[in-house]
Every structure is written in structure tokens, then in C-alpha cells.
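Why do we care about 3D structure at all? Because function follows from shape, and shape follows, mostly, from sequence. That is the central idea of this module. The next example makes it concrete: a single protein chain, its amino acid sequence, and then its structure expressed as C-alpha cells.
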Amino acid sequence: MPNPGMHGSHCATTRTTTPPTTPPTERGPSSLSQSIPTVPPTVLPDNPAPLALPHLSAPLALRRTIADTDLTVHPLALGTSVFGWTADGATSHRILDRHRDLAGNFLDTADSYTSGRSEVIIGSWLRSRRTRDSTVIATKIGKNLDNPGLSSRSIIGAVHASLERLGTDYIDLLHFHFDDPTVSLEESLGAVDVLIRGGLVRYLAASNFSAERLMEARVLAANGLPRFVALQTQYNLLHRTAFESSLDLVTRAQGMGVLPYFALAHGFLAGRYRSKADLEKTTRSSRGAKYLNRNGFRVLSVLDRIAEEHDAAPAAIAIAWLLARGPVVAPVASASHPDQVDALVAAAGIRLTRGDMVDLDRVST
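And the structure:
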């Protein structure tokens, strides 16, 4: 197991990823709590056959280190909020296979995604593919109705429930999904300190926290409590202001890694919705519909042009723009089908020119 007392105090350039010295216990589905939704056997086969995919490699040099930790990840975090929602279990396994075969190793989930089913699907895939040691798992807690909020009791309960669903003994990166103003940060961080010392959690991150709360947490960390090594926040070409003001300054000052979510603006920046006729009757497409306006189309037009020049998909260019921004380590983006993964992962190998960046900055400001 990793050193349970690590909070990340060494320079990132001198550390390498060290997998646990003993493999995690592989728990079967029968050990899941009665309160945890289960996935029908027809959705998650016991022994799914691996995909026969062409071998596509990505240089390991593309790996990035999250702040001053030993978590070395691919620059694209595969979002799994669609698992058990728009992607059933079998499709989700194929998406995970494709991501792995393209050198992806970073998965983002939450205990509230499809009421925990996303974690169940990931756990099933980890067992069937025996890929736990080579996979960095980030999960978020605080929104599941079984363990709501960030009280000490909820945090301990939520982590144990996530470990059961994922079928593993430890979580690489634990996020507080949202700030909980009803609980003192000292209590929340103290609960995580117990989990880290017990080897159940390796590092802590924040999601949807304000700059003020991040600064408060930093003061507490200076007194010995776990520090936030990363921030997950909404950030993309169509949603810039919230991050590029105070959050950008604070994350730089604290040496935090930034993991932007909604990197493709609900699929709009992938070129999925170009008219109302393209909208499906789903929650996801209704969210993307708000960008069907003059400003959205201007951004998409520049994305299309630059994508053509790089022989890439618009989604890859949108993610490459994020990867060229300041403290961004790995944008979070999801796929509903295996063939959508290629464009996401390809972004890590794209080097936008100075002119590309100027054009994208100007049209999206």
C-alpha cells in the first residue's frame, strides 16, 4: 500500500508513480451494501471478453503529475458520469477498454453518479481486466443521499461505501464534491486525515470550492491537516470567467493541479449540436442547447477551422486549449460510445500554435 501518511511534501519532478506493494483486495458484488443499487447481470457480464482493438500507443512522456504527489496521469481524465445512464454496463466496459488501449489511466467518478452505479461498473471492469494497479481512481463524495454532506460521519461512511462499490482497498484521489458550509473545514479535513493514515485514501482534492474556502483550507493544512492537491472546477472555452479570476490565482499560489470538468460544454464543443434538430431528448443535450447562440457558433467555427488544420476533431482542439492553460493537469471529459474516446485522448498529442491560442482566446473571451 502507499504510504498512508503522505500529503505530498516533495517536489513533483523528483517523484515517480509507485503502485501499492500488495494488490488491492478484489471484492465480489456480493459484498455490496443492501442500500447500494446493483447492476443487472445482463448489463454487466461476469466475464466480458476484451475488445479486439488495434494497438494504438501514446508516449508515456505525455504523463503529468498532479501537484506534489506521486500520481502520474494521462492528460485526459475519463469522466464516467454517463456510466449506467446514457451508457449501459457493457458499453461502459468497452469505453474503458478503449481508453486503456490508448494509454489512458485516469478515471473520474463520484458516489452520486447514477446513485453509485458508475462506481459499480468501474469496479467490475477493474476486476475483470485486473487493471487496478495501473489505474488512478478519483472519486467524489458529499452528494450521495446515503452519506450527504461533509461531516466526519458522512465522509467515513461515503469512503467505505465507495471502496465497496469500486472493489478496492484504497482511493487514489478523493474529492469533496461540493463545499458544505454547515460543517467546519477542520472537521472535514480531520476525517480525511484518519482515512489517509489508515491507507484508505491517498490524496485529497476539492471540487466546486470558492477561492476563499481554498485559502481557509490551506491555513488548516499548514497546521498538519491534509491539503487539497487539486481542484476540479467547471472550465472550458465557453465558461472561463469563474475560473480565470480568483480561482486561477489561488490554485497557482497553492501549487494545486486543476482538473476542469464540462471540458466540452456538454458535448457542444465536440460539434455534437449545431442546430436544434441535433438535440436529443436527454438531460445532457438540453444542457448543451444553451450554447446554440451566436457566441457558441462563433467559437465552434474557429474550433472547426483549427481542427481541420491539425487534422483533428473539434473536441481534441477544445481539450488541447485547456491543456495549454496554466495549472491544468487533466481535463475531465466523458464518452457515451467507445469511438468517441479517440478524439479525447488525441488532445494530449496536439500542440496548438501561438496563433491558434490567440484566435481561441479572442473568440471565447
